Fold each of these.
Amino acid sequence: MTIIDGDTVDISNVNRQLPATQLNVGESKAKWMEQRLLAINPALKLHVIQEFLAPLPMTALLAEQHFDYVVDCIDSFTPKLHLIEGAVNRGFPVASSMGAGGKVDPTQIRVGDISETRHCKLAKMVRKRLRRRGIAKGVKAVYSLELPMKESLMLTDGKNYKKSAYGTMSFLPAAFGCSCASVVINDLLAAE
């Protein structure tokens, strides 16, 4: 398994991300997830990359290794698009988590081909850009039919390809993540 995250734990992560606690604010998320995963299964062959996925290193990573499945949980548009496109072009199956921000109802989460997504601005942007690059379908998207609450929109400093974000309810990222995990496990089992 390869996990990649260049971010550090922020106080705003404590309510909604497994590795985030008051005790590890400022520390590497990838390092904390490495410890957690190895505590669950010490025999796990784990490759940890503590950096943000910029387009060029991402392209090199996808070209150098074989992946049975790629799970995209990136919330910055340009790296998300690059990862999906790169994985599809190399024949790796992809499960991509779309926008959970500003939403509160996990019963509206759906899994479908990117071409079938509705009511999700991030999915719409990804879908349009992928189509321009010749990818109209073949990416499994985890998305919500719920419209985001407008008052939860926040502007950011623009770092890491991200100009704005919606505040996220504590249980929604976990629900999206569990949906992605379900897609991967079921697809891998069906392929055996």
Amino acid sequence: MVTPRERMISSTALLIRERGAHSTAISDVLAHSGAPRGSAYHHFPGGRTQLLSEAVDFAADHIAAQITSTATGLELLDTVVTRFRDALVESDFRAGCPVVAVAVEADNGTVLDRAGAAFTRWIDLIAERLVLDGVAEPRARDLAVFLTSSIEGAVVIARATRDVAPLDSTHRQLAALVHAEMGSTRDDR
């Protein structure tokens, strides 16, 4: 059973991805999650900073689970892009990435540090997946940074233009790159 605390964290992540960090007030989180008014400071004595930080961690865990559930780098790419694409379309282009929203808007070192840790974690997991596919570690790390920044940038552009074409185009180009890298590692054996 999901606790009020867990509902508040997931609600915060959902609201941040649509509204941004600055526009997500604790009162909005309470209304969205259905949590009692006094529960915010009971569950989050660190206030809004703690709530934002835990929402970033929640989003980081969600994407990390998507990454680690895949069998290949190409499947990883397809899974992550499809999830972002679906979220954009289903939300009428309101839903971006909560970690990006916090990274762009954070005026608090703690929250910004959590966003940085989320990106680093994703990059590490993607690099690990690519190494398992036979890509050399230094190249896998570079590709992981490139994939992460390309997908996140494409989500921002798709959201701003209210069109999935930038994400679809980025997906095709990244898939070709990953396929070529995996092919070149097979040819080198």
Amino acid sequence: MKELTLRHHNRDSAAQIRDLLLDIHDECYADSTDEFDQRERFAWFVDHWSSSPGFSCVIGYEGEQAVGYAYGAAAPESREWWRGTKYQPHNGHRATYHLSELMVRPKWRKTGAAQSIHEALFAERPEHLAALLVDTEHPKVQALYEGWGYRKVGEDRPFADAPLFAVMVRELYRERAQSA
């Protein structure tokens, strides 16, 4: 794989990248018949997240070809996904970024693109913690995130038709303190 070009976006540029996010999603879920994976349903999530004040997105490109993206937003205080689990942040560090999506086109999977995009997303974030949800029926995905420093702190089903998710947390402030 050639070196990726990583482009950062925020709420102000969300409308310009919306169709690209949806198109990559469609390619990644082309074989799925699950209603949860359909474009119309996913479009709601894209619109919801991209309208959040703390929204950020990184899209990775090889040449002019978008290979994948990661996006999310700052979590509203007291609505962090880890609340309701036994997890307690160290030293009062509670500011959390919710990673909503990390998606890489099939051609670029297992190339390091996903991790590069993921790390670029957090490189400029001020939050102390990163939190994400992984379908419990996808243990390989959970193991991938564990390899990137996340740990499972509980489980949650955020709405009635959602799968059961593993709630995973990564402590960003410790990484920053160690590298300073």
